[in-house]
Specification:
about 525 residues, alpha/beta, Rossmann fold, GMP Synthetase, Chain A, domain 3, 3 domains, nine-stranded mixed sheet, 14 helices, about 25% strand
């Protein structure tokens, strides 16, 4: 494995945690380049010259069994600072002679208060009298390895932070990478700059140059078809590839009939007139609706939409010479929820139409230049490419569109009802200066009707669910707390203006335990 440009990096070994990518994200936010590697690939590494620090992630494995994921013991003798998080702490303890046990009495999930025992470079400006950290473990260290000291503890975890300063090895039982841990960024700052002594050299603009270079090297003189939806991700991909190969890019906008009201036409004119991209429109709404008839299972919906997308692009590609690539705006959260990015045992949450929804056999090769990035990083990349604010500040929109916001069977009637409700909701957010305070907001249609009373008459219509969340990266999220006056207004406006809806509800579930989308 070769690291980009042989830069000084922080290497993250992924043991399968759902939030491993957040570690890389936190490191990059601090201006330091980082990469994720799985344990098997790490064992094949021969050169460690540019690795300035190693972070061992959390994961679903347990070191209490005979077989467990591990790292070669020699890495602890390389004089490279090492930080173990959750499973990483337990692995460090196990490999150095400590003891770990599984116990319901010691399990911790959610917030826990941490208490300081000793000073440490790792916890400088982090620990105070009321620190709250985010825990997610059932195993716990019960005997400290020789040569290690305890820095902090919780009521259930005696060895919450440990260190061996002589070997530059540190371990923490909680997750500083998630926003639920107060001041968690300090842990990474201290590890990077006080312990690893690495310098800030990473930024999004440098990534733009690298991505353009890699696209040119991969595509050469062939042509690329780009699946352009008009959302942030596919728009950034289109502009990136246009910078790299220009005339050899063909953008195709497929009207699935599952987009928001009037959004498709508006974005088409922006790309055609402002950015002068070679854009072709295909109206396939009737085909998608026919294929989704009587399909209620969300995984089946995603796979049908994904397969149909690829078939359309492969048919279109035959109309042009030398088309060998299909470009998509796949992001890392899409991948980590569909399968493991690094080859580890990360559990699958759902298929994304541009990841798990693709057919196994394709005539086109994939180009997914954003698959290592989070949404806010993509927005920054878009800004550096001159992407319009109308698009760059747009909330995330799923590839399958309204198909997965209509719970149960998809019909043309339901699509029209949902488009109108969603249009009202989003417009009211904009009018009330709330849109940019929210990570993602949408309306969904629930698969049942309820009784209502309108004008002294009985109604039997659909329930509209509204969802709005705040987040930094889409990996975790909290629901947005609207003023009561706004909720009253939006409920009233949707019911009075959208025939087919007689009830509005608001989703107040965080992620986890739920996902942002319903399907």
């Amino acid at each position: 494995m070769q690291f980009h440009n042989n830069k000084e990096i922080i290497l993250i070994i992924d043991f399968g945690s759902q939030v491993t990518k957040l570690i890389a994200r936190r490191v990059r936010d601090l201006g330091v380049y980082s990469e994720i590697i799985n344990p098997l690939a790490f064992q094949k590494l021969k050169h460690f010259n540019n690795i300035k620090g190693i972070i061992l992630s959390g994961g679903p494995s347990t070191v209490t069994k005979n077989k467990y994921q591990s790292v070669p013991k020699y890495i602890f003798n390389l004089n490279i600072p090492i930080l173990g998080i959750c499973y990483g702490l337990q692995l460090i303890s196990k490999l150095h002679g400590g003891k770990i046990k599984t116990s319901k009495r010691r399990r911790e999930f959610g917030r826990a208060q941490i208490f300081k025992k000793k000073n440490s470079k790792l916890t400088q400006s982090f620990l105070n009298s009321k620190n709250s950290v985010w825990m997610s473990h059932e195993d716990a260290v019960v005997k400290l390895p020789k040569g290690f000291k305890t820095i902090a503890y919780t009521k259930k975890s005696k060895f919450t932070i440990i260190e061996n300063t002589q070997k530059k090895i540190y371990g923490i039982q909680f997750h500083p990478e998630v926003t639920h841990t107060e001041n968690g960024e300090k842990i990474f700052k201290n590890f990077l700059f006080l312990i690893c002594k690495i310098k800030k050299k990473w930024n999004i603009v440098s990534q733009k140059k690298r991505l353009i270079k890699e696209i040119r090297q991969k595509v050469k003189k062939d042509r690329v078809i780009c699946a352009l939806s008009g959302g942030v991700d596919s728009s950034v991909v289109a502009l990136l590839i246009n910078k790299a190969i220009r005339k050899n890019l063909i953008c195709i906008m497929v009207d699935t009939g599952l987009m928001r009201k009037d959004e498709f036409k508006r974005t088409y004119y922006i790309f055609k007139n402002r950015y002068k991209l070679n854009v072709k429109l295909i109206n396939a709404s009737s085909i998608f609706l026919r294929k989704l008839k009587n399909i209620s299972n969300p995984e089946n919906k995603r796979k049908i939409i994904g397969n149909l997308f690829v078939k359309i692009f492969e048919i279109e590609s035959k109309k042009f010479k030398n088309v060998k690539f299909l470009a998509q705006g796949t992001l890392y959260p899409d991948i980590i929820e569909s399968k493991s990015f690094s080859g580890s045992k990360t559990s699958k949450i759902k298929s994304h139409h541009n990841v798990g929804g693709l057919p196994k056999k394709m005539n086109l090769k994939l180009i997914e230049p954003l698959k290592e990035f989070f949404k806010d990083e993509v927005r920054m990349l878009g800004k550096s490419l001159g992407l319009s604010k109308v698009i760059s500040q747009r909330h995330p929109f799923p590839g399958p569109g309204l198909g997965i916001r209509i719970i149960g069977h998809v019909t043309s009637e339901k699509i029209k009802i949902l488009q109108e409700a969603d249009h009202i909701f989003i417009n009211e957010l904009i009018k009330n200066n709330l849109y940019n305070k929210i990570w993602q907001a949408y309306a969904a249609l629930l698969p049942f009707r309820t009784v209502g009373v309108m004008g002294d008459s009985r109604t039997y219509e659909y329930t509209c669910l509204l969802r709005a969340v705040t987040s930094e990266d889409g990996m975790s999220a909290d629901y947005f707390s609207f003023p009561k006056e706004f909720m009253d207004k939006i409920s009233n406006k949707i019911i009075n203006n959208v025939k087919g809806i007689n009830r509005v509800v608001y989703d107040i579930t965080s992620k986890p335990p739920s996902t942002i989308e319903l399907e």
